[in-house]
Amino acid sequence: MRILVKADGRVEILLGSQREPLCDANGRWQVKLSQYAYLSENAYVLFHELTREMVSLTKEEWEELDDFRNGENEEKDVTPLMQQLFSHHFLVASTRNELKYYQQLMGLIEIAFPVKKGIYTYTILPTTACNARCVYCYEEGIHALTMKQDTIDQLIRYILETRGNGRIHLNWFGGEPLVGSGMIRQVCEALAREKVPFDSAMVSNGALFTPELVREARERWHMNRIQISLDGEKADYLQRKRYYQSWEGKEQTDPYETVLTNVAALVKMGILVSLRCNCDWDNLSGINAFIEDLERRFSPWPKQLSVYFAPLNQESEADRFPALHEKLIGFTALCRKKGFQTGIQGFGYKLRLRHCMADSLANQRLIDPSGRLYDCEHMPESRSYGDIWHDVTDPELVKSLCDHREVREKCRDCVFLPECTPYTKCPIEVNSCREINVQRLENIIREKLEGIGYKEAQPC
Fold first, then answer.
1. d(Cα 124, Cα 27) in Å, to the nearest integer?
2. pTM of the full predicted structure?
3. What are the structural domains of the chain?
4. What does the pLDDT look like over 305-342, one tens digit per residue?
5. CB atoms within 10 A of CB 194
6. What H or E segment, with its residue span, contains residue 223?
Protein backbone atom coordinates (compact mmCIF):
# COMPACT_ATOMS: atom_id res chain seq x y z
CA MET A 1 0.00 0.00 0.00
CA ARG A 2 1.38 3.40 -0.99
CA ILE A 3 0.24 6.81 0.20
CA LEU A 4 -0.50 9.19 -2.66
CA VAL A 5 -1.97 11.98 -0.52
CA LYS A 6 -1.48 12.27 3.23
CA ALA A 7 -4.46 12.50 5.57
CA ASP A 8 -5.64 15.83 6.98
CA GLY A 9 -3.54 16.27 10.12
CA ARG A 10 -6.42 17.75 12.10
CA VAL A 11 -8.58 14.71 11.44
CA GLU A 12 -5.73 12.32 12.24
CA ILE A 13 -5.20 13.96 15.63
CA LEU A 14 -8.87 13.77 16.57
CA LEU A 15 -9.48 10.26 15.25
CA GLY A 16 -6.44 8.86 17.03
CA SER A 17 -5.55 5.18 16.79
CA GLN A 18 -8.06 2.37 16.43
CA ARG A 19 -7.28 -0.20 19.10
CA GLU A 20 -10.04 -2.77 18.65
CA PRO A 21 -8.95 -6.25 17.46
CA LEU A 22 -9.81 -6.88 13.82
CA CYS A 23 -11.12 -10.37 14.61
CA ASP A 24 -12.94 -11.94 17.52
CA ALA A 25 -11.78 -15.03 19.45
CA ASN A 26 -13.23 -17.27 16.74
CA GLY A 27 -11.35 -15.51 13.94
CA ARG A 28 -14.39 -13.69 12.56
CA TRP A 29 -13.94 -10.14 11.31
CA GLN A 30 -15.09 -7.35 13.62
CA VAL A 31 -14.45 -4.65 11.04
CA LYS A 32 -16.09 -3.35 7.90
CA LEU A 33 -15.09 -1.11 5.03
CA SER A 34 -15.72 2.49 6.07
CA GLN A 35 -18.74 4.22 4.53
CA TYR A 36 -16.38 7.06 3.59
CA ALA A 37 -13.85 4.89 1.73
CA TYR A 38 -14.23 5.47 -2.01
CA LEU A 39 -12.83 2.65 -4.16
CA SER A 40 -11.62 3.41 -7.67
CA GLU A 41 -11.80 -0.03 -9.21
CA ASN A 42 -9.84 0.69 -12.39
CA ALA A 43 -6.99 2.52 -10.65
CA TYR A 44 -6.67 0.31 -7.52
CA VAL A 45 -6.95 3.50 -5.46
CA LEU A 46 -8.80 4.22 -2.22
CA PHE A 47 -9.70 7.73 -1.16
CA HIS A 48 -11.03 8.42 2.33
CA GLU A 49 -13.60 11.20 2.12
CA LEU A 50 -13.31 11.93 5.85
CA THR A 51 -9.53 11.77 6.46
CA ARG A 52 -8.78 12.98 2.87
CA GLU A 53 -6.08 10.32 2.50
CA MET A 54 -5.46 8.68 -0.88
CA VAL A 55 -3.64 5.34 -1.20
CA SER A 56 -2.88 2.95 -4.03
CA LEU A 57 -2.80 -0.83 -3.87
CA THR A 58 -1.10 -3.46 -5.97
CA LYS A 59 -3.27 -5.83 -8.01
CA GLU A 60 -2.69 -8.55 -5.42
CA GLU A 61 -3.62 -6.25 -2.54
CA TRP A 62 -6.78 -5.16 -4.36
CA GLU A 63 -7.78 -8.79 -4.83
CA GLU A 64 -7.26 -9.37 -1.11
CA LEU A 65 -9.49 -6.42 -0.32
CA ASP A 66 -12.06 -7.75 -2.77
CA ASP A 67 -12.03 -11.10 -0.98
CA PHE A 68 -12.72 -9.30 2.30
CA ARG A 69 -15.56 -7.29 0.79
CA ASN A 70 -17.10 -10.44 -0.67
CA GLY A 71 -16.75 -12.39 2.58
CA GLU A 72 -14.32 -14.88 1.04
CA ASN A 73 -11.48 -14.61 3.56
CA GLU A 74 -13.33 -15.15 6.84
CA GLU A 75 -10.84 -17.72 8.11
CA LYS A 76 -7.65 -15.94 7.08
CA ASP A 77 -5.22 -14.43 9.54
CA VAL A 78 -4.98 -10.68 9.78
CA THR A 79 -2.53 -9.69 7.03
CA PRO A 80 -0.28 -6.61 6.96
CA LEU A 81 -2.60 -5.04 4.37
CA MET A 82 -5.71 -5.44 6.54
CA GLN A 83 -3.83 -4.03 9.52
CA GLN A 84 -2.70 -1.03 7.44
CA LEU A 85 -6.21 -0.36 6.14
CA PHE A 86 -7.47 -0.52 9.72
CA SER A 87 -4.79 1.81 11.10
CA HIS A 88 -5.55 4.29 8.29
CA HIS A 89 -9.34 4.15 9.02
CA PHE A 90 -10.31 2.56 5.71
CA LEU A 91 -11.58 -0.29 7.87
CA VAL A 92 -13.60 0.54 10.99
CA ALA A 93 -15.38 -1.37 13.75
CA SER A 94 -18.45 -3.23 12.45
CA THR A 95 -20.64 -1.64 15.13
CA ARG A 96 -19.70 1.96 14.34
CA ASN A 97 -22.52 4.36 13.43
CA GLU A 98 -20.57 6.33 10.85
CA LEU A 99 -23.03 9.20 10.45
CA LYS A 100 -22.98 9.85 14.19
CA TYR A 101 -19.21 9.46 14.22
CA TYR A 102 -18.87 12.01 11.39
CA GLN A 103 -21.14 14.52 13.14
CA GLN A 104 -19.22 14.14 16.40
CA LEU A 105 -15.92 14.64 14.58
CA MET A 106 -17.17 17.85 12.96
CA GLY A 107 -18.20 19.11 16.39
CA LEU A 108 -14.77 18.26 17.81
CA ILE A 109 -13.03 20.11 14.98
CA GLU A 110 -15.09 23.21 15.75
CA ILE A 111 -13.97 23.01 19.39
CA ALA A 112 -10.35 22.04 18.77
CA PHE A 113 -9.80 24.48 15.91
CA PRO A 114 -12.09 27.43 16.66
CA VAL A 115 -12.54 30.24 14.17
CA LYS A 116 -11.05 33.62 14.95
CA LYS A 117 -13.36 36.23 16.44
CA GLY A 118 -14.52 39.08 14.24
CA ILE A 119 -15.49 39.51 10.61
CA TYR A 120 -12.71 38.98 8.08
CA THR A 121 -14.65 38.75 4.80
CA TYR A 122 -17.24 41.24 3.55
CA THR A 123 -19.09 40.38 0.33
CA ILE A 124 -20.56 43.67 -0.83
CA LEU A 125 -23.05 44.42 -3.60
CA PRO A 126 -22.57 48.07 -4.59
CA THR A 127 -25.51 47.61 -6.95
CA THR A 128 -27.85 45.03 -8.42
CA ALA A 129 -27.84 46.94 -11.73
CA CYS A 130 -25.92 45.47 -14.66
CA ASN A 131 -24.74 46.53 -18.10
CA ALA A 132 -25.71 43.10 -19.46
CA ARG A 133 -28.90 41.04 -19.46
CA CYS A 134 -27.61 37.46 -19.33
CA VAL A 135 -30.32 35.06 -20.42
CA TYR A 136 -29.53 32.65 -17.55
CA CYS A 137 -29.04 35.16 -14.72
CA TYR A 138 -30.56 33.95 -11.44
CA GLU A 139 -30.96 37.60 -10.40
CA GLU A 140 -33.49 38.22 -13.17
CA GLY A 141 -36.48 40.06 -11.72
CA ILE A 142 -34.51 41.59 -8.84
CA HIS A 143 -35.09 45.36 -8.71
CA ALA A 144 -32.03 47.36 -9.81
CA LEU A 145 -30.84 49.12 -6.66
CA THR A 146 -27.60 51.07 -6.12
CA MET A 147 -26.19 51.85 -2.68
CA LYS A 148 -27.00 55.38 -1.51
CA GLN A 149 -24.51 57.73 0.12
CA ASP A 150 -25.87 57.39 3.67
CA THR A 151 -25.68 53.60 3.32
CA ILE A 152 -22.09 53.84 2.04
CA ASP A 153 -21.15 55.98 5.06
CA GLN A 154 -22.75 53.46 7.44
CA LEU A 155 -21.10 50.54 5.63
CA ILE A 156 -17.69 52.07 6.27
CA ARG A 157 -18.53 52.52 9.97
CA TYR A 158 -19.88 48.96 10.10
CA ILE A 159 -16.68 47.47 8.68
CA LEU A 160 -14.52 49.47 11.10
CA GLU A 161 -16.66 48.39 14.08
CA THR A 162 -17.02 44.68 13.27
CA ARG A 163 -13.74 43.70 11.58
CA GLY A 164 -11.38 41.22 13.18
CA ASN A 165 -7.79 41.99 14.04
CA GLY A 166 -5.54 41.85 11.01
CA ARG A 167 -6.16 41.86 7.28
CA ILE A 168 -9.73 41.81 5.98
CA HIS A 169 -10.98 40.72 2.58
CA LEU A 170 -13.57 42.50 0.43
CA ASN A 171 -15.53 40.59 -2.24
CA TRP A 172 -17.21 42.90 -4.75
CA PHE A 173 -20.32 41.32 -6.24
CA GLY A 174 -23.43 42.45 -8.06
CA GLY A 175 -25.25 43.00 -10.43
CA GLU A 176 -22.14 44.24 -12.11
CA PRO A 177 -19.98 45.72 -9.32
CA LEU A 178 -18.16 48.10 -11.68
CA VAL A 179 -21.46 49.94 -12.17
CA GLY A 180 -20.80 51.05 -8.58
CA SER A 181 -17.08 51.75 -9.00
CA GLY A 182 -17.48 55.12 -7.27
CA MET A 183 -18.81 53.40 -4.16
CA ILE A 184 -15.93 50.89 -4.23
CA ARG A 185 -13.52 53.81 -4.43
CA GLN A 186 -15.05 55.48 -1.37
CA VAL A 187 -14.88 52.35 0.78
CA CYS A 188 -11.29 51.55 -0.17
CA GLU A 189 -10.14 55.13 0.38
CA ALA A 190 -11.77 55.18 3.82
CA LEU A 191 -10.10 51.92 4.86
CA ALA A 192 -6.75 53.21 3.63
CA ARG A 193 -7.17 56.43 5.66
CA GLU A 194 -7.87 54.34 8.76
CA LYS A 195 -4.80 52.20 7.95
CA VAL A 196 -6.89 49.03 7.81
CA PRO A 197 -4.98 46.25 5.99
CA PHE A 198 -7.21 44.81 3.29
CA ASP A 199 -7.29 43.13 -0.08
CA SER A 200 -10.15 42.56 -2.48
CA ALA A 201 -11.60 40.32 -5.16
CA MET A 202 -14.43 40.73 -7.64
CA VAL A 203 -16.94 38.79 -9.73
CA SER A 204 -17.50 40.78 -12.92
CA ASN A 205 -18.30 40.54 -16.61
CA GLY A 206 -15.19 42.68 -17.17
CA ALA A 207 -16.67 44.94 -19.85
CA LEU A 208 -16.55 48.24 -17.92
CA PHE A 209 -12.85 48.22 -17.11
CA THR A 210 -10.68 50.94 -18.60
CA PRO A 211 -6.86 51.14 -18.42
CA GLU A 212 -7.22 53.68 -15.61
CA LEU A 213 -9.69 51.51 -13.70
CA VAL A 214 -7.45 48.44 -14.03
CA ARG A 215 -4.60 50.37 -12.42
CA GLU A 216 -6.86 51.73 -9.69
CA ALA A 217 -8.20 48.25 -8.94
CA ARG A 218 -4.68 46.99 -8.34
CA GLU A 219 -3.15 49.97 -6.60
CA ARG A 220 -6.08 51.51 -4.67
CA TRP A 221 -8.57 48.67 -4.27
CA HIS A 222 -5.76 46.18 -3.53
CA MET A 223 -7.42 43.72 -5.88
CA ASN A 224 -5.51 40.46 -6.16
CA ARG A 225 -8.15 38.23 -7.79
CA ILE A 226 -11.09 38.55 -10.15
CA GLN A 227 -13.53 36.09 -11.72
CA ILE A 228 -14.78 37.06 -15.16
CA SER A 229 -17.73 35.24 -16.67
CA LEU A 230 -17.66 34.11 -20.29
CA ASP A 231 -19.99 31.96 -22.40
CA GLY A 232 -17.86 30.22 -24.99
CA GLU A 233 -17.12 31.44 -28.50
CA LYS A 234 -17.92 35.00 -29.52
CA ALA A 235 -21.32 34.39 -31.16
CA ASP A 236 -22.62 32.48 -28.14
CA TYR A 237 -21.14 35.07 -25.78
CA LEU A 238 -22.88 38.01 -27.43
CA GLN A 239 -26.19 36.16 -27.76
CA ARG A 240 -26.21 35.15 -24.09
CA LYS A 241 -24.81 38.28 -22.47
CA ARG A 242 -27.16 40.66 -24.33
CA TYR A 243 -25.25 43.81 -23.43
CA TYR A 244 -27.05 47.13 -23.63
CA GLN A 245 -25.93 49.00 -26.76
CA SER A 246 -24.83 51.91 -24.57
CA TRP A 247 -24.20 52.28 -20.86
CA GLU A 248 -23.93 55.61 -19.05
CA GLY A 249 -23.56 57.38 -22.36
CA LYS A 250 -20.82 55.11 -23.74
CA GLU A 251 -21.29 52.70 -26.61
CA GLN A 252 -20.63 49.05 -25.73
CA THR A 253 -19.16 48.07 -29.08
CA ASP A 254 -17.77 44.55 -29.46
CA PRO A 255 -17.85 43.65 -25.75
CA TYR A 256 -16.24 40.24 -26.39
CA GLU A 257 -13.05 41.90 -27.65
CA THR A 258 -13.27 44.51 -24.92
CA VAL A 259 -13.48 41.91 -22.16
CA LEU A 260 -10.58 39.80 -23.42
CA THR A 261 -8.46 42.94 -23.89
CA ASN A 262 -9.28 43.84 -20.28
CA VAL A 263 -8.37 40.32 -19.16
CA ALA A 264 -4.91 40.78 -20.67
CA ALA A 265 -4.54 44.16 -18.93
CA LEU A 266 -5.58 42.73 -15.55
CA VAL A 267 -3.10 39.86 -15.90
CA LYS A 268 -0.32 42.27 -16.86
CA MET A 269 -1.12 44.30 -13.73
CA GLY A 270 -0.47 41.19 -11.61
CA ILE A 271 -4.10 40.37 -10.78
CA LEU A 272 -5.08 36.69 -10.78
CA VAL A 273 -7.87 36.27 -13.34
CA SER A 274 -10.18 33.26 -13.32
CA LEU A 275 -12.25 32.85 -16.46
CA ARG A 276 -15.52 31.07 -15.71
CA CYS A 277 -17.10 29.70 -18.86
CA ASN A 278 -20.81 29.09 -18.23
CA CYS A 279 -22.05 26.07 -20.12
CA ASP A 280 -25.19 24.19 -21.08
CA TRP A 281 -26.00 21.91 -24.01
CA ASP A 282 -26.71 24.85 -26.32
CA ASN A 283 -23.18 26.32 -26.32
CA LEU A 284 -21.04 23.14 -26.12
CA SER A 285 -20.45 23.01 -29.86
CA GLY A 286 -18.50 26.27 -29.71
CA ILE A 287 -16.27 25.46 -26.71
CA ASN A 288 -13.42 23.99 -28.77
CA ALA A 289 -13.29 27.17 -30.86
CA PHE A 290 -13.34 29.21 -27.63
CA ILE A 291 -10.37 27.23 -26.26
CA GLU A 292 -8.48 27.77 -29.53
CA ASP A 293 -9.19 31.52 -29.30
CA LEU A 294 -7.82 31.63 -25.74
CA GLU A 295 -4.72 29.74 -26.86
CA ARG A 296 -4.14 32.17 -29.71
CA ARG A 297 -4.52 35.21 -27.46
CA PHE A 298 -2.67 34.11 -24.35
CA SER A 299 -0.01 31.61 -25.41
CA PRO A 300 2.33 31.09 -23.64
CA TRP A 301 -0.28 30.80 -20.92
CA PRO A 302 0.41 33.20 -18.01
CA LYS A 303 0.46 31.88 -14.44
CA GLN A 304 -1.96 34.62 -13.35
CA LEU A 305 -4.72 33.35 -15.67
CA SER A 306 -6.91 30.26 -15.21
CA VAL A 307 -10.04 28.93 -16.85
CA TYR A 308 -12.77 26.58 -15.70
CA PHE A 309 -16.05 25.36 -17.11
CA ALA A 310 -19.19 25.59 -14.96
CA PRO A 311 -22.64 24.21 -15.72
CA LEU A 312 -25.47 26.68 -15.37
CA ASN A 313 -27.47 26.32 -12.16
CA GLN A 314 -30.55 25.55 -14.22
CA GLU A 315 -28.86 22.40 -15.55
CA SER A 316 -28.29 20.86 -12.10
CA GLU A 317 -31.82 19.43 -11.89
CA ALA A 318 -31.87 18.04 -15.44
CA ASP A 319 -31.60 14.31 -16.15
CA ARG A 320 -28.73 14.93 -18.56
CA PHE A 321 -26.65 16.84 -16.04
CA PRO A 322 -24.09 14.03 -15.46
CA ALA A 323 -23.48 13.78 -19.21
CA LEU A 324 -22.96 17.55 -19.38
CA HIS A 325 -20.61 17.46 -16.41
CA GLU A 326 -18.54 14.73 -18.09
CA LYS A 327 -18.21 16.92 -21.19
CA LEU A 328 -16.90 19.80 -19.08
CA ILE A 329 -14.29 17.53 -17.46
CA GLY A 330 -13.14 16.71 -20.98
CA PHE A 331 -12.79 20.40 -21.87
CA THR A 332 -10.78 20.96 -18.70
CA ALA A 333 -8.44 18.09 -19.60
CA LEU A 334 -7.97 19.59 -23.08
CA CYS A 335 -7.04 22.95 -21.56
CA ARG A 336 -4.47 21.32 -19.30
CA LYS A 337 -2.86 19.53 -22.22
CA LYS A 338 -2.50 22.91 -23.88
CA GLY A 339 -0.74 24.29 -20.81
CA PHE A 340 -3.63 26.36 -19.42
CA GLN A 341 -3.98 26.87 -15.70
CA THR A 342 -7.27 25.28 -14.63
CA GLY A 343 -9.14 24.94 -11.38
CA ILE A 344 -10.82 21.91 -9.78
CA GLN A 345 -13.96 23.35 -8.33
CA GLY A 346 -15.13 22.29 -4.90
CA PHE A 347 -12.34 19.84 -4.03
CA GLY A 348 -9.53 19.90 -1.51
CA TYR A 349 -7.27 17.57 0.40
CA LYS A 350 -8.33 19.16 3.69
CA LEU A 351 -11.66 18.36 5.31
CA ARG A 352 -13.89 21.40 4.97
CA LEU A 353 -15.65 22.49 8.11
CA ARG A 354 -17.51 25.21 6.21
CA HIS A 355 -18.74 24.79 2.67
CA CYS A 356 -19.97 28.23 1.63
CA MET A 357 -20.61 31.74 2.91
CA ALA A 358 -24.02 30.71 4.24
CA ASP A 359 -22.61 28.45 6.95
CA SER A 360 -19.59 30.70 7.68
CA LEU A 361 -21.42 33.62 9.26
CA ALA A 362 -19.11 33.78 12.29
CA ASN A 363 -16.47 35.41 10.07
CA GLN A 364 -18.37 36.65 6.99
CA ARG A 365 -21.03 39.14 6.01
CA LEU A 366 -22.90 39.61 2.74
CA ILE A 367 -24.32 43.11 2.35
CA ASP A 368 -26.83 44.16 -0.30
CA PRO A 369 -27.19 47.73 -1.69
CA SER A 370 -29.78 48.63 0.97
CA GLY A 371 -27.46 47.55 3.79
CA ARG A 372 -29.27 44.32 4.66
CA LEU A 373 -27.34 41.18 5.66
CA TYR A 374 -27.96 37.90 3.85
CA ASP A 375 -26.50 34.42 4.15
CA CYS A 376 -25.66 34.02 0.44
CA GLU A 377 -25.58 35.88 -2.86
CA HIS A 378 -28.88 34.32 -3.95
CA MET A 379 -30.46 36.57 -1.27
CA PRO A 380 -33.76 34.81 -0.57
CA GLU A 381 -35.96 37.26 1.32
CA SER A 382 -36.53 34.87 4.21
CA ARG A 383 -32.78 34.64 4.89
CA SER A 384 -31.99 38.23 5.82
CA TYR A 385 -30.79 38.14 9.42
CA GLY A 386 -29.84 41.77 10.10
CA ASP A 387 -28.46 44.98 8.65
CA ILE A 388 -25.39 47.22 8.89
CA TRP A 389 -27.08 49.50 11.43
CA HIS A 390 -27.90 46.76 13.95
CA ASP A 391 -25.71 43.81 12.81
CA VAL A 392 -27.39 40.46 13.64
CA THR A 393 -31.06 40.90 14.58
CA ASP A 394 -32.07 37.23 14.23
CA PRO A 395 -29.44 35.15 16.09
CA GLU A 396 -31.61 32.02 15.99
CA LEU A 397 -31.66 32.11 12.18
CA VAL A 398 -27.87 32.52 12.12
CA LYS A 399 -27.46 29.59 14.52
CA SER A 400 -29.67 27.35 12.39
CA LEU A 401 -27.85 28.32 9.19
CA CYS A 402 -24.47 27.31 10.68
CA ASP A 403 -25.68 24.04 12.22
CA HIS A 404 -24.04 20.97 10.67
CA ARG A 405 -25.99 18.40 12.65
CA GLU A 406 -28.99 18.27 10.32
CA VAL A 407 -28.29 16.02 7.32
CA ARG A 408 -30.60 15.34 4.40
CA GLU A 409 -32.12 11.86 4.53
CA LYS A 410 -30.72 10.88 1.14
CA CYS A 411 -27.21 11.92 2.23
CA ARG A 412 -26.95 9.93 5.44
CA ASP A 413 -25.36 6.80 3.95
CA CYS A 414 -23.42 8.49 1.15
CA VAL A 415 -19.66 8.02 0.77
CA PHE A 416 -19.35 11.68 -0.29
CA LEU A 417 -21.06 13.22 2.75
CA PRO A 418 -17.87 14.78 4.21
CA GLU A 419 -16.95 16.35 0.85
CA CYS A 420 -20.46 17.28 -0.25
CA THR A 421 -22.30 19.85 1.82
CA PRO A 422 -24.18 18.82 4.96
CA TYR A 423 -25.84 22.21 4.66
CA THR A 424 -29.49 21.19 4.30
CA LYS A 425 -30.85 24.70 3.76
CA CYS A 426 -28.95 25.39 0.54
CA PRO A 427 -31.40 26.54 -2.18
CA ILE A 428 -29.42 24.61 -4.82
CA GLU A 429 -29.87 20.83 -4.72
CA VAL A 430 -28.29 18.65 -7.38
CA ASN A 431 -30.41 15.55 -8.03
CA SER A 432 -27.54 13.58 -9.59
CA CYS A 433 -24.94 14.63 -7.03
CA ARG A 434 -23.51 11.14 -6.50
CA GLU A 435 -22.80 10.65 -10.21
CA ILE A 436 -21.21 14.10 -10.38
CA ASN A 437 -18.98 13.38 -7.39
CA VAL A 438 -17.89 10.05 -8.87
CA GLN A 439 -16.94 11.76 -12.14
CA ARG A 440 -15.07 14.51 -10.34
CA LEU A 441 -13.15 12.20 -8.00
CA GLU A 442 -12.26 9.68 -10.72
CA ASN A 443 -10.85 12.56 -12.75
CA ILE A 444 -8.83 13.79 -9.76
CA ILE A 445 -7.45 10.29 -9.13
CA ARG A 446 -6.54 9.90 -12.80
CA GLU A 447 -4.73 13.24 -12.87
CA LYS A 448 -3.00 12.49 -9.57
CA LEU A 449 -1.63 9.21 -10.92
CA GLU A 450 -0.58 10.82 -14.19
CA GLY A 451 1.07 13.67 -12.33
CA ILE A 452 3.23 11.85 -9.79
CA GLY A 453 3.39 8.22 -10.89
CA TYR A 454 3.51 5.25 -8.55
CA LYS A 455 7.28 5.44 -8.06
CA GLU A 456 7.06 8.81 -6.33
CA ALA A 457 4.27 7.77 -3.99
CA GLN A 458 5.21 7.29 -0.35
CA PRO A 459 5.61 3.71 0.84
CA CYS A 460 3.34 3.05 3.80
1. 62
2. 0.87
3. 2-113+432-459 (no CATH), 121-345 (3.20.20.70)
4. 999 999 987 777 778 899 999 999 999 989 988 988 88
5. 12
6. strand 223-230
